[in-house]
User: Fold this.
Amino acid sequence: MNNLKILIIDDEISIIQILQKYLEKLSYEIHFAVNPHKAFEILREFPIDIVILDIHLPEMSGINVLEILKTEYPEIEVIMITGLDDSQKIIKVMELGAFDYFYKPLNLVDIKHAIERTSKYLMVQKKLNQARGAYHNLTSYFQNKAGDIIIGTSKAIKEVLDLSLRAAHSDNTSVLICGSSGSGKEMIARTIHSMSNRKSSFLYSINCAAIPENLIESEFFGHEKGAFTGAVENKTGCFEAANNGTLFIDEIGDMPLAAQSKLLRVKKKKKVKKIGSQKEIEINTRIISATNHNLKQMIDEKKFRLDLYYRLNTLEIHIPPLKERREDIPQLLDYYIQYYSKELSKKINTISKEVYEMLNLYDFPGNVRELRNMAERAAILCDSDNLKLKHFPIKEMRFLSDQNGKSSNLIASEIKKTEEVESSDFEREEIIKVLSACNGNKTIAAEQLGISRYSLYRKLKKYDLK
Assistant:
């Protein structure tokens, strides 16, 4: 991290000059100030990484400056220097958060090593902050986007919520969440974390199915720079990043057997060792895992470890597919339509009865996620205050139902009704348009429509056109 920006605050010009000359040779960007007033001007103008701060300064003491730095610039690390051997002050500055301290006359090599240690610490903090930032973004997403709450009043979903609450109250218990894709496994994991005593710490999500097998160990446990080809810098693994928080391992059934044995070791010892390192790091990370596979069948097929299964499955939560809790469909649909109406600046006040009836016939292979996507599409297509069947992809729904051999006749009947309605709507609009163009002359309008005057009169009566 040779692009570090370092600010030296000392009222001795000779000290500043010595440090500046030495550190600039190491390719660091150096700023300096002989008093706190000038230092704070620099801090307001430049993004400083490290401050080398003398305890004894004019205007105010270095301890007071340190207190301000830690309050207003908490991301900056501070190395204290002093000309007096005052153990009480040294204890004070370390309590206030100084990274290191040195006595004058300074040993430049010691200063160099301290900066290098600080640099490594800053890199780790930067990555953790990025991870935490991603977490807060996700948290904001789940709070502000559709799907932020678990919706439903069915007995099945109430049982899921009850188990989630019990899991949250026992925040060291390993939880295995089972359910098909789109059923809301990650949402349940986030609910458990947010209700637990670990809620103020980080929740880190990782998907085993999305990680190449040769990188999965590095993602979970981290690595040291140079540990293998391509390891160009140190990497913090997700266990360490989620320390004192929760690690959500999605698609645990897709984890290779070799990685499963290492995960089991971490679960037993509560320690991780980075690739290329001999040092073990103690961790206090809660594991919530999820799968859409039948792990017991995978155990019989020697694809999943039995001992790991029991380590991860202290408490199992099964999320039923949407087709097994159909009574929740109307409430889910209402919620999503209200949400997307607001997002699209529309006023969809009513949903036709046929929509509810139609959706209740459908099996939703994509579960709640599919229903949410349908609701968004329908809200986009709707140009009035009433949501109708024509705003839903019922032909695709019939195809999927035919594939599954479910409700195809009933859905086909609904499609026929919808097509008849759409045809009638089109015909009515066409008659209005032609009559308008003919200034109401029914003889000319009938000729242009290709029908008899009698047929036109009959249609005018049918569509209540006067």
Summary: The first helix runs from residue 13 to 25. The chain has four domains: 5-122, 154-318, 323-352+370-392, 394-466. The mean pLDDT is 84. The longest strand covers residues 77-82.
